[in-house]
Amino acid sequence: MAATRKKQLECDVLFEHQDLLALTLAHPQPRKQPQSRTLKDGTRLTLIDSGILAIEPLRPGDSDIVLSCGVHGNETAPIELVNDLVNAIISGELVCRQRLLVQLGNTEAMVKGTRGVQENMNRLFSGAHARGESNPEKARAALLEQTVRDFYNQSGRKRFHYDLHTAIRDSQREKFAVYPYRPGRAWSIEQIRFLAGCGVETILLSHSPTTTYSYYSSNEFGADAFTVELGKVYPFGQNEMSRFEACRKQLSRLIAAQPLEYPPLAQSVVFDVCQVVNKHHEGFRFSFDDAQANFSEYPPGTLLAQDGDTEVRVGAVAESIVFPNAKVALGQRALLTVVPTAIDDRFE
């Protein structure tokens, strides 16, 4: 009885004080059962597990939207942004007219203020969490997958998944998104323009399967899914939230089924992923400074990295670097290179 009452009190914190983030940081551990409450307009909120909230209007529109953040626990701006959206829904300031699933990803890492605890959670999806010895991050990734699977339980509906991040380094292009590999499906011009309305005007087209969260939703459920980078990592409370205002407004419009902002396509810059460089030796090192900004460009033939006896060089045309990280685990991606591309017949 006491345990049941405690869980109800925890749930009441969310609905009375409108703060999913505070509740999650106070109680990051897994919950034993969901808790639900209905808002005055009939919208049902279900706290599925720690940091996982389903929001379902009485008469939803045609879209199922997943907003995930905190897959890396120290990427706080997207967490605060999504928390603000949840607060607005609970207070009645924002009316939710689409089915919405909110996920604060790596709750233990969020509490510690670290990128991860034992692993890079954004390499644990599409079943990768089942490989090797289990740990809490693998269990959490499996839970995130399952709640998305349960959420996308109705056919014939539009599916969207925006996995929100911030980067650990400076970037010559502050906001950008990775569009996962989608064999047999064209890239969506509408989605590229939607992201531009979020202030995200740079798109990277991936051409191979990965174990990222956005690829999971795209590949398994046909969702329009993206890994969205919104800026640079800062601790909780130190983000300049005005920099994310365009994103907040666009996501609010999407959630409320209001007309969306679609800037001209010419405003967006699209890159093809050229090289995916995985780390195979402990002595892996870059030839450039470790603090080099994302999208720094190098001319043809430039040595980018040394991995054992293997040299990684720029090919026949100039390439820009994205996500360089020599400290990743063996077998994981240490670098992407990208080249500009045209919006052509691969898009519709």
TrEMBL record:
Enzyme class: hydrolase
EC numbers, comma separated: 3.5.1.96
InterPro entries: AspA/AstE_fam, AstE_AspA_cat, Aste_AspA_hybrid_dom, SuccinylGlu_desuccinylase
SUPFAM superfamilies: Zn-dependent exopeptidases (SSF53187)
Binding site for Zn(2+): 72, 75, 165
Keyword Zinc: yes
Domain AstE/AspA barrel-sandwich hybrid, residue spans: 269-340
Catalytic residues, chain numbering: 229
One of the protein's GO biological processes: L-arginine catabolic process to L-glutamate
Reactions performed catalytically: N-succinyl-L-glutamate + H2O = L-glutamate + succinate
Pathway: Amino-acid degradation; L-arginine degradation via AST pathway; L-glutamate and succinate from L-arginine: step 5/5
NCBIfam families membership: arg_catab_astE, PRK05324.1
Role: Transforms N(2)-succinylglutamate into succinate and glutamate.
HAMAP family, sorted: Arg_catab_AstE (MF_00767)
Protein name in the entry: Succinylglutamate desuccinylase
Highest classification ranks of the organism: Bacteria, Pseudomonadati, Pseudomonadota, Gammaproteobacteria, Alteromonadales
